[in-house]
Amino acid sequence: MTDVPTTPRPAPTPLGSTVLGYPRIGRDRELKRAVEAYWAGRIDQDELRRVGASIRSETWTGLLEAGLGSVPGNTFSYYDQVLDTAVMLGAVPDRFRRLGLDPLDTYFAAARGRGDAAPLEMTKWFDTNYHYLVPELGPDTEFSLSDDKPVAEYREARALGVTTRPVVLGPVTFLLLAKRAEDAPEDFTPLSLLDRLLPVYERLLTELGEAGVEWVQLDEPAFAADRSEGDLAALRAAYDRLSAVANRPALLVAGYYGDLGPALGVLADTGVEAVAVDLVAGPSSVDDLTGLSGLRTKTVLAGVVDGRNIWRTDLDAALGACATLLGVAGSVHVSSSAPLLHVPYDVRRETRIDPTVRSWLAFAEQKVAEVVLLERALTGGTGEVAEELAGAREVLAGRSSAAGRNHQVRAQIDALRPEHRTRGDYEVRAKAQQDKLGLPPLATTTIGSFPQTDDIRRARALRRAGRLSEDEYRRRMRIEIERVIRFQEDIGLDVLVHGEPERNDMVQYFAEHLDGFAATEHGWVQSYGSRCVRPPILHGDVSRPAPITVDWSSYAQSLTDRPVKGMLTGPVTILAWSFVRDDQPLADTAAQVALALRGEVRDLEAAGLRVIQVDEPALRELLPLRAADRAAYLSWAVDAFRLATAGVSDGTQIHTHLCYSEFGDVIEAIDGLDADVTTIEAARSRMEVLADLHEIGYRRGVGPGVYDIHSPRVPAVEEVTGLVEAALAAVPGQRLWINPDCGLKTRGYPEVEPALRALVSASATARAALAGAE
Ligand SMILES: Nc1nc2c(c(=O)[nH]1)N[C@@H](CNc1ccc(C(=O)N[C@@H](CCC(=O)N[C@@H](CCC(=O)N[C@@H](CCC(=O)O)C(=O)O)C(=O)O)C(=O)O)cc1)CN2
Ligand code: MET
Ligand SMILES: [Zn+2]
């Protein structure tokens, strides 16, 4: 129990039904368009702020009218909520402040870099496809309440007649997500700053209280992962202190993306008024909660409506979970399991999705309606909503009986044997590949995509609108492929790519060509900053009706004597970046996708492609947050990749590519993929991953990225040469590949051309040095 007495204050209005957060890009990506127009100098700050205000007002009024008991506030962001928090806490690194820009431009400079000021690192947000900017902290960091965004947005909503519950990233998760600033001592940990940080949160709570805020939500998702005793002690200390603040709003602490484990007991013993638990990703939380006497006086938000996936809720099951909690908690209200940031706005706009499949789906708006309905059932009894419950039951029954079963696919999976996932000895393969390809040491290549020019995107938009024929579209893409091939020949790369111009996205494109998936038209979700994706919906058994990439890749190969790499997205990444069915184990779905890709890999080989890359950038992303679940995941993930790729002969070279990750936890799985060549993000971390690979005895080809494509900066030749030398110190030249960190689709040719020339020149220099040394 806390030994700090909490200040007596009037009981807050009950929370009622709610969601933990909401999409913020605008129903038609208005924010993306406005932010990008602002960056390009086409609109000014006033215009950008008008777009932001209109998205916020539409969100608040919409949520109020939908009948939520408590409307979340401060869920808007111009780029990222972690950066917003760093700005609010006055923790923006000096290199951005020194630029002397106004607050909004300083903010964007931290997000995107400017001149010599490299941007904050961007990394995966838990196990999602959202990316946040990593705060940099050191022993000299001084926090101060430097921005009033949560208060200002509260007042803005009030003026529109909506009372909101500001959502703020919690202090402990903020510190756990931060990293040590480069100039900080090695043994510094951001969590050591907790005592310095808490006064700022105390001040924030005071100001929110003064503004009339009744409830504030502090998010602590970091506790859905394994945490140390020290982390738990920090959580306890933080909420003991924050709950002792005088005249503060009532505190709701939200944990999501999994069960809170021991953190739940810690929170139950602090003076916070409410906790939100994720009963979808962490269903066992129901049992964890029942033993906690500390909850008897608290409100529990039961996260029973999935905030991450798009299936309609099993309302009976959800009500059952809520009912169990009624006996444990002071009061229970219904909520989404996580912020709705990861789902699109409105399924009713998807008129091209088969109506049966569409009837199974709920996007953000529909989820809000489910939450409201469940709350009515919980408070007024099921009789009041009997009709709605019966309707939902019928849809659910329809889904489980239909579920697009493909008996042929299931029979093929049942017939698989270990040899379908095993290739021959690597040394034998390497020899056969060298005979066929005759590549020099330090061979150069790229990761697949070339800049998606306005012309390409416009052509695709015209075709979608029916204003460009399929033939004309294909003709234009072929012209682009030829241009990209000639460009690479001119630069002098060794292994070429076709450039992926025909792909809207590396996952959506494949989903559009596989059975068992539905693509959306408007289902945009933020991935980072202004970049969005439309995750496809994997609703049935997966199969490949016809070859997908073979025409494009063999056309590219027909244009050149140099080897062209076939280019596919791997099964784990296709799953990670889709909305996947929740009615069978992920492992089974992965095997189906892998089997479809296996057919594509073999068709590419038969068409004369000697090198085939199967991208798995999301291998790390799907790694379970809790260590206990990891071995099982890695086992099926590796199996799926091997099933997709092991059907080729020894002489066909399989590449894979990984990015956006800290690889330490999956390094053995990377080895287990058994790819002949692994290209991997490394430029920003200065080749750290090579030491990890060396340690586990990895001995196949490796291409650590020597050009950071996530920044508009063009590296100088000396910089690339430095990275190549660092790599050569860890890997022999014959096994070393020279390539960028990732695909080039988000970059422009003015950056790409000099960067690739630098890369080829650095390889040539290192090659000459190697030859001289022999
Ligand atoms: N799914 C996925 N997740 C990923 C990645 C990825 O590549 N894919 N990469 C990592 C980083 N995340 C990223 C996410 C998105 C983008 C990205 O570039 N997204 C594009 C959209 C890509 C797309 O779907 N393009 C479509 C639609 C393009 C579009 O907006 N068209 C306009 C019309 C254009 C015109 O008329 O000129 C429209 O529809 O309004 C196409 O090319 O066909 C964007 O936000 O701008 C990049 C990286 C991790 N996660
Ligand atoms: C996010 S990984 C990207 C791999 C893909 N082949 C590309 O180059 O775009
Ligand atoms: Zn990549």
TrEMBL record:
Gene3D superfamilies: 3.20.20.210. 5-methyltetrahydropteroyltri-L-glutamate binds at residues 29-32, 124, 531-532, 577, 621. The keyword Glycoprotein does not apply. It catalyses: 5-methyltetrahydropteroyltri-L-glutamate + L-homocysteine = tetrahydropteroyltri-L-glutamate + L-methionine. Residues 17-325 form the Cobalamin-independent methionine synthase MetE N-terminal domain. Zn(2+) binds at residues 657, 659, 681, 742. It holds the Pfam family Meth_synt_1. Residues 442-763 form the Cobalamin-independent methionine synthase MetE C-terminal/archaeal domain. L-homocysteine binds at residues 447-449, 500, 615. Its EC number is 2.1.1.14. The active site is at residue 710. It comes from the Bacteria. PANTHER family: 5-METHYLTETRAHYDROPTEROYLTRIGLUTAMATE--HOMOCYSTEINE METHYLTRANSFERASE. Belongs to the vitamin-B12 independent methionine synthase family. Catalyzes the transfer of a methyl group from 5-methyltetrahydrofolate to homocysteine resulting in methionine formation. This is 5-methyltetrahydropteroyltriglutamate--homocysteine methyltransferase. It comes from Actinoalloteichus caeruleus DSM 43889.
